[in-house]
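Objective 1.3, modelling of assemblies. Example input:
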Amino acid sequence: MSNEAEGLMRIRQPIAVTYQWSAGPNATSHLEGLMEGRLIGKRCPSCSLVYFPPRNGVCPKCAAILAEDVEVGPRGTITTFCIVNVPFLGQKVKIPYVAAQILLDGADISMQHLIQECEADEVRIGMRVEPVWKDRSEWGPTLESIAHFRPNGEPDRALGSEAASS
Amino acid sequence: MAERCAVVGVGQTNHTSCRADVSIAGLVREAVDRALADAGITLAEVDAIVIGKAPDPLEGVVMPELWLADALAAHGKPVFRVHTAGSVGGSTAIVAAQHVMAGIHGTVLTVGFEKQSDGNAMWALSVPIPFGMPVHAGAGGYFSPIVRGYINRSGAPRHIGAMVAVKDRTNAVKNPYAHLHEPDWTLEKALESPMLWDPIRFVETCPSSDGAMALVLMSEERADRRPGPKAWVHATSMRSEPTAFAGREQVSPRAGELCAEDLWRKGGITRPADEIDVVEMYVPFSWFEPMWLENLGFAPRNEGWRMVEDGVTEMTGSLPINPSGGVLSTNPIGASGMIRFGEACMQVMGKAGEHQIDGARKAVGHAYGGGSQFFAMWLVGADKPN
Amino acid sequence: MARDVAIVGTAQRPSQVGTVLTSVELILPVIDEVIAKVGVDRREIGFWCHGSCDYMSGQPFSFVAAVDAIGAWPPIVESHVEADGALALYEAWVKIQTGECDTAVVFSNGKTTSGPIDQILTLQADPYFVAPLWPGFDTLAALQARMCLEAGVVSERAMAEVAVRSRRDARSNAVAWPPASMGDHSVDELLATPYVRDPLRAHDLPVAVDGANAVVLAAGDVARRLSPRPAWIRGFDHRIDTQRLGARSLVESNSARVAGRVAGVNADKIDVAELHAPYTHQELLLVQALGLDPQRTRINPSGGALVANPAMAAGLARFAEAADAVTSGRADRAVAHCTSGPCLQQNLVCVLEGE
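Predicted structure (C-alpha cells):
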C-alpha cells in the first residue's frame, strides 16, 4: 500500500455548533449547593442509595428520579485513583497529578476530582481527604467550585470491595 | 428458528495513524473491496449493508452512512447504521448476522470504520460537559483507576501489563494490516516505558488509528454454494449495564460475565479455556487481558494474571489471545470491534497468514465499549453449528 | 419462517419547545408509561433499542446516558442506532425474527430545539464538496420543492392544503405541538405569507420540538396476551437513494417507492398512513411514491411531523400513531413511514394490520 499524499488536496473544515445545555431540574439542587459551598447529593426513592453527583437526576439501577436532597461529606475516602503523567491540550495542573475517585461520607457512589497538596506517590486507596474550595467569588454550578481535595491526616479507612468498584 | 449464517469474506485496511491517501469513502472501500474479493462476489450481489462506527464528531460528518450510500453502490438497497460506542464493530456484525439469521437477506455486507485522524480524537472522546469536573485524564484516566483496583485485589505482580503489551506488539509484527509494527519489544524495555496514567504505561495503551474492517455474511444456502472456507456463526451475545451506579462492580462488570455465559450456553461450550482455540479480545489497555480472562470465564476470579504469566495467552500457548496484535496495536474505534470479530473468522477460515493459530476451529470475537458497560461477542467455527 | 410481530403499546411525550430536561429525564417517563400501559415487567423485556443522534445532543456517546433511563440492572440486551427510533424498531423486529427474544422496547428522543438542527443535519452532506457550503437542511428541501413545482408534480396550493389539514388535525392530538401562534388560517391566508426559503413558506417547514417516545413490540401469542388488538407488522422494508442531489430525480422518491412495494403497501387497503414528512411537498411526494389515494386513505391524522418534529423521534412517532389507529379500531390497515437524509434520501415503510 502506498502512502502517497502528494497531489491530494486536504481541506480544513471548521465546524462550530452552539447548544443550549441543561443540567435538568433533578440535578439543580446539587448544582445550587455547589454555588453556596455545600455538597448536596440525592437519594433514590427505590434503593435509598445516595448519589453524588446525581448524574441526570436519575438512579440508573432503579430508573427512578432522584428526589430527596442529602448533604454529604465534606470529607471522603479515596476508593481508587490514577497518576496522570500525559500532557493534555488545555491542561491547567502540572503533571504528574492525581485524578481520584472519592467516596464522600454519606454518599454511596464515588465522584471524580483532583488530589493536590501531597506528592503523587503518597496517594493511596483508603486515604482520607477533604475539599479545598476556590475563592467564594469563583463558586458556580459546577464541581470546579472545589479546586481540589487534599489529605486531611485522618487514619486510612479500609473499604473492602469498594476498592475495586465505583 | 433462526437460519444459519456464515462469514464468507473478510477484508480490512492497512491501519495507521493517518490515512492521508484516501477519503473516508476510500478508506471504507479499501476494506469492502478486499472483503468482496475474499468472498468472490461484487457489490451488486450484496442485498443489504450494515455500517457501524463510533461518534460522528470523530470525523465531523453526521450519519456518514447516508453519504456513503454512493460509495457503496447502495442505491435501492437497505443501509443500516449501528452505534454502540466502543463495542460498535462487534454489535454491528451481530446486527448484520441477524439480518441473515432472520431470513430477511441472503447476502449482507457489514463494515466498521473510523477515520479519526480527520478530526481531533482526544477532543471527541472527552468533550467537556458543562457543570462537570474536567480532570482531563482521557480514556486512560478513566480506566487506569479500575486497573489499579484489579491489581489491588488480585495481587497481580506489576509486570503483567507489560507482558501483555510485549506479546500484542510482537504478534502485530506478523499482521501486515496492524497499525503498530514494533519488532523489538522486550519485557525489560516495556517496564521502562513511561507511566501515562499510573499504573498504565505508554506501551500498554492503544494507538489512535484510521481503519476499516468489512465482512461478507451469507445464508447457509448461499454459503454452501461458495467454494472455500467459511466461518460459521455459532452464537452471538450482547449485554449492557449502566455506566455508574452505587455499588457497581467496575473491574469485572456483570454485563460482561453474562454476555460470555450467554455465548457459552448458546454455543454449547462448557469449558471455554479448553474448547476455544483462539480469542480476539478487546484489550485497549494491556491490563484488560487478565481482567477479561476472568470476566469471560476463562480464568477464576483474581487468577487471570497467572494465565498471562504462564504464557498461556501467547501464540504458542494453549489459549492464544489476540494473535492479530489486538486493539493494543490497532485502534480505529468504530472498526476495532469488527476487527476482533473478523480476525476470529480469519482464524477458523485459516486465512490469518503469519499470525494463524494452527488448527483453530473455534474462535471468539469480543468487543466492549462505554465505561466497560456494553459487551458484544460472537463464537465462530470452521464447522457448521449443531 | 417469519414470526408475527406486533406493536402492543405506545407512549409519546407531549411535545415541548426549549425543554430544560435532560434526555434521560425526557425518556424515563415514556418508558415507565409504555411499560405500565402494556402491563409488563421491565425485567421481562427481551431487547431494548434506542434511536438518537450525538450531534443533536452536542455530545459524543450521548446515547450512553439513556441506559440510565431504562433501569438496566440486572444487565440487559440493548442496542442503539444513530438514527430515528423507527430504525431502532426495525432492528428490534429483526432480532425478534431470529427467535432470540419475544418482546422489545424501542425508544427515541430528540432535543431538537437545544441546537441548530438545520445546521446539524447539513453535516450529513458530502464532507468534501457539499458540507463546506453549509447549504442548510431546509434549503436542500427547498431546492427539491422548487423542482417539484416546476415539474408540476406539486403546487403551492396543494402544499398549503397539507399545512392547513395538518394543523387542524394536530389540535385533537395531545402530543402534537400546535402553538397558539399557528392560529387558524385558510389556504389563501397561508399563501399570502412571505417565503422563508423560497419556494417554502413558514407553513411548509417543520416545527422543531423536543420529544421522546417508546413502543413495545411482541411476537405471536405474547402479543395477543399483551394487547386486545395488536398492530401486526405485515411488511417492513427500508431503502436508500444516492445522496447526490444532482444524481437522482428529486421530484419523486425512488427509495420510498421500492420500500413501499417490498413492504407490500396495497393502496386499496390502507385506512391510515402516518408519513414522516417534515416538509409539505414531501408529503405529496410520499403519497405518490407509495401509490396512496388520499380519498381512500387518511394521511397523517396525527398532524404529522410538519406540526411537531422531534428529530430522531418523529419517525417512531409515526409508528406510534399508526399503531394506535389500528389498536383503537380506527384503522384495519395502516402505513407507518420514516425518512432520513436530505430530500427523502432514505425511507422506511411498514404496513400494520389489526386482526
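The two ends of chain A are 45 Å apart (CA to CA).
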